[in-house]
Amino acid sequence: MIQRMLTGALVAGCAAWLLAAVLHFAFVQKYILLGEEYETGAAVHWAGIAPATGAAHSHDEATAEAGHDAAEAEGHSHDGAEAAHDHGGGEEPSSFTRNLWTTVFFGLVYVAYALILVAGFGLARTYGKMITAREGLLWGIAGFAAFQLAPAMGLAPELPGTLAADLGERQLWWWGTAASTAIGLGLLGYGRSLVTAAIAVILLAAPHVIGAPELEGFSGVAPPEVSAAFAARVLGVGLAVWALMGWVAGFVWARGADTPAGTR
What we know:
The protein has 264 residues and is mainly alpha-helical. The protein is built from seven helices and no strands.
């Protein structure tokens, strides 16, 4: 069984790794780079009405300086699947180096997620539940809901230059939300009584009733339209990747179950 879990996790994690990297560079990376331009002051958001022609317009030196000063505020975070970066002193990494480490980061993250997923398969098996590719797809979607969608309801994916609450508090709320959502969905999916359903509802709602740690006001140097597009694409990519990972993991798991015991 351990061999089947490791095989399923590696295959599903690598499949998710490849899809996540492709979708990230195709749909998400440009928004991160654009957010960094606003963060460093290379681009400045003019909080006014855009010209009807849609043509680009210039800003005077005072506006540019104000945008640059605002961009110097420290501290921002990305979604768990986004690569971290540093805008402190020293040389900026080359595009190749940056993209390489982003890709490596995706591999580590999604193989780890796949290990958690197949561990759930093993737990379900001890209770007599059969996991197929279809079941795996549903598990993948549930994993997306637990690790990305539910936490994003309180801590949306953030562009560079966005101020946020204390990192430790956000991490504590994120992990609590992920665990509470995962357990709640498991109870809803496999529970057989009204009591378990009631507990599941309480677990799903509790993190959002408590509320995520947040600042008193809104802040950020990038246009809100860019932040919204970034968050939407991060979640869209996450759904596609988790669905594929769950399907592949379920498919490999089911094939392993059909293999005669003497050949495993």
